[in-house]
TrEMBL record:
Pfam families: GGDEF. Residues 103-235 form the GGDEF domain. SMART domains: GGDEF (SM00267). CDD domains: GGDEF (cd01949). InterPro entries: Diguanylate_Cyclase, GGDEF_dom, Nucleotide_cyclase, Rev_trsase/Diguanyl_cyclase. It catalyses: 2 GTP = 3',3'-c-di-GMP + 2 diphosphate. The keyword Magnesium does not apply. The chain crosses the membrane at residues 12-31, 43-61. This is diguanylate cyclase. It comes from the Bacteria. Keywords: Membrane, Transmembrane, Transmembrane helix.
Length: 249
């Protein structure tokens, strides 16, 4: 039997279940080992004693199991989510995205424009705040079934489940405008950022890495076209093989 004590209510249910098992075991032993008249005379005090011993112990064990579950949940979240931004890590991205390749999806690769210069000029604290705010905007504009992951530095990858490429481009263009319009407050200063986006289709049964590379090439083109924009992958324009992460800031 496997007990999963996820909530405080589960603690009380665990306590009640264990207490009931102990009570039934006590009754079985009493009537199985004692003469019937003696077993009947000791039924109430014996049952009360069994419950007085079992209930506190079961409650204590249930509380510990609940705490273990909470710690396990936190650990799993820490392993699968980026500590700074709260979005998925690269490893968690591939674990979660694997089953999604069975349906049509859209992949978006994005990063913050000129982020190295921003970080050097305003400091790492402002840079971290910019990354957190950027990740929050990406997440807020995605559905629960979509994936947002930080692949490293200022580069993020999004998978839009059951979305055509033109829908993904519309999402990316909306994000371009929202990033441009959002303020980052750094002490008395109000700072602004822009971001570029590359979009590619992932057909059913397609290869995720191929779609990511295509979106990265579209991102490269967006950077070289002036940044602060979103482009859809075009084989005619994006035919050069550009490794992930080489898009100009």
């Amino acid at each position: 039997m496997s007990w999963r004590v996820r909530t405080k209510g589960d603690v009380w249910r665990f306590t009640a279940a264990i207490s009931a098992v102990v009570l039934l075991g006590s009754l079985g032993l009493r009537f199985g080992m004692l003469p019937p008249d003696l077993a009947a005379r000791t039924l109430v005090p014996g049952s009360a004693m069994a419950l007085m011993l079992a209930a506190p112990i079961a409650w204590f064990v249930g509380r510990r199991m609940h705490e273990v579950h909470r710690l396990g949940t936190r650990l799993e979240h820490a392993i699968n989510h980026d500590l700074l931004t709260g979005v998925h890590t690269r490893k968690a991205f591939y674990e979660r995205a694997g089953p999604m390749t069975a349906e049509a999806c859209t992949v978006i690769v994005t990063d913050i424009d000129n982020f190295k210069g921003f970080n050097d000029h305003y400091g790492h604290f402002a840079g971290d705040q910019a990354l957190r705010q950027f990740a929050a905007m990406l997440t807020a504009n995605c559905r629960d079934g979509d994936i947002v992951a930080r692949f490293g530095g200022e580069e993020f990858v999004i998978v839009l489940r059951d979305a055509a490429a033109d829908e993904g481009l519309a999402v990316a263009e909306r994000l371009v405008a929202r990033v441009r319009a959002s303020a980052i407050y750094h002490g008395p200063q109000t700072l602004r950022l822009t971001a570029s986006f590359g979009v590619a289709a992932l057909p059913p049964g397609g290869d995720m890495d191929t779609a990511i590379q295509q979106a990265d090439r579209a991102l490269y083109r967006a950077k070289h076209a002036g940044r602060d924009r979103a482009f859809l992958y075009d084989p005619g324009c994006d035919n050069a093989a550009i490794p992930m992460g080489t898009a100009a800031e």
